[in-house]
Amino acid sequence: MVRLYAVTGGRTAPATRLAMEALVSSATSSQLGLSYVREYRAISEICHQVRSVAEISALLGVPLGVARVLISDMESEGLVRVHHPRSSAGGPDLTTLERVLSGLHRL
């Protein structure tokens, strides 16, 4: 965990709001060089296919907060593109929530 602390500079929150369901894609078609930290190179490689922030966290085996900080930093450097989910003002409708709840009860 010391290494992750060093990589994130001790930060636990990203510079920009980053939802765990946000989709991330690599902004470069080539591999990042050795001048980048291992985690940046791994995220860039993983994101040649579009992945969610939560998926990246799981694939790297790092806490979600760490993944958010790294992805946010990479976005600011132009290394990845983040596709933020659309947020509906009212959220999901009541009927949808009731159907989901009913389905969970059946499990």
Overview of the structural elements:
The protein has 107 residues and is mostly helical. It contains five helices and three strands. It has helices at residues 2-8, 38-46, 53-60, 64-76, 94-106; strands at residues 23-26, 51-52, 80-83. The protein has a three-stranded antiparallel sheet. The radius of gyration is 16 Å and the shape is elongated. It starts with a helix and ends with a helix.
List the helices and strands and how they pair.
Layout: H1 2-8, E1 23-26, H2 38-46, E2 51-52, H3 53-60, H4 64-76, E3 80-83, H5 94-106
Antiparallel strand pairs: 1-2, 1-3
What percent of residues are in strands? 5-15%
User: Helical element count?
Assistant: 5
Average pLDDT taken over every residue:
84
Helix content: 40-55%
* Shape type: elongated
Structural class: mainly alpha
* Count of distinct strands: 3
List keywords for this structure.
about 110 residues, three-stranded antiparallel beta sheet, 5 helices, about 45% helix
Task: Give a quick rundown of the structure.
This protein has 107 residues and is mainly alpha-helical. 47% of the residues lie in helices and 9% in strands. A 3-stranded antiparallel beta sheet has the order 2-1-3.
